[in-house]
Amino acid sequence: VQLQASGGGSVQAGGSLRLSCAASGGIFSINDMAWFRQAPGKERELVASITSGGNTNYADSALGRFSISRENGKNTIHLQMNTLKPEDTAVYYCKSLYFGMDYWGKGTLVTVSS
Fold first, then answer.
1. pLDDT tens-digit profile of 49-97?
2. Residue 40: which of 113, 114, 110 has the closest Cα?
3. Cα(first)–Cα(last) distance of the chain, in Å?
4. Three-state SS letters, 32-82
5. What is the largest CA-CA distance in the chain?
């Protein structure tokens, strides 16, 4: 499974960004997918996840502001991020759980300025 994340960039606080992660290889529709992020000097943390059946889970910091979705026909997941805060600044990574194996994409940088 190969994952390619895109959509990062620089935005002012209060703005929005939409991240996408395109998967290739494997059978996308049976993957559980997730977004993680890693801020400078901090550990990587879960932001949001979505199961193959569409069940979602969010970190407390993302609840009410972020929304994860998937398009199985396009082998893609998205992370809609609204009301961004400077503390959301991080490299965002998508992850696939496929037959018990974790696959990670290269991250995409999100920078939120105050």
1. 999 999 999 999 999 999 999 998 999 999 999 999 999 999 999 999 9
2. 110
3. 37
4. EEEEEEECCCCCCEEEEEECCCCCEEECCCCCCCEEEEEEHHHCEEEEEEC
5. 41
